[in-house]
Amino acid sequence: MRGRITTMKKNKKKRNFYQSFTHVSPSKQRIQLQAPRISLENNNLKKYYRILTDFDFLSAKIAHPEFGIDSLIEDYQLRSQPGLINAPDADRNTDTALQRLQETLTLSAHILRQDPNQLISQLWGRLQPFQTLPAIQSLLTQSCQSQDSPCLRPLTPSLTPPGTGLQ
C-alpha cells in the first residue's frame, strides 16, 4: 500500500456555507438546500454552478434527513433543462464537471444512502481522472479541507469513474 495514499492538511479557514448553515433554523436550512433550483429559477447560472461544486453544500444536502443523495442528484439533472446549456453565461468546462459529478453521485448513491460520511472517499475514488477540470480539482481540495484531521486520499483512482461503465 506504500505510495498509494497521501494526505492533505486542513485549511484552517472555514467556508461561508458551513458557517451559515450550521447556525440557522431548520426552515432556513431547507431554503439553503433548495438553492440550486432557486438559482436556476432566477436565471443565475453562475450561482447554480458555484453551489453544485461546493463540498460543504453537497455534504450538508446528502446528510440532511429531508433531502439526501437523491435530491442532490436531481439538482444536477436540472442542468439539462432546455436552453440552459446554450445560455450566454453557460460554462462548458463547468457543465462537463457537473455532468461528471452527477454520474459520480449516481454511481455512489447506494453507499451514500447508508453512510453520507463516505462522500469524500467516493469523490476521490471516482473523480481523480477528471482533475484537469478546475471545478473538480477545487471540489476535491475542498473535501479534504473540510476535515478536522488529515485527509487520507488515494493517489490513483480506486473506484469506477463516471462515464466508463463497469469493467
UniProtKB/TrEMBL annotation:
The record, for InterPro entries, names: APAF1_C (IPR041452), NACHT-WD_repeat (IPR052752)
Query: Region (Disordered): which ranges?
Result: 147-167
Low complexity biased stretches: 149-167
Q: What domain of life does the native source organism fall in?
A: Bacteria
Q: Which residues form the APAF-1 helical domain?
A: 43-123
> What is the protein name for this chain?
APAF-1 helical domain-containing protein
Organism (species): Planktothrix tepida PCC 9214
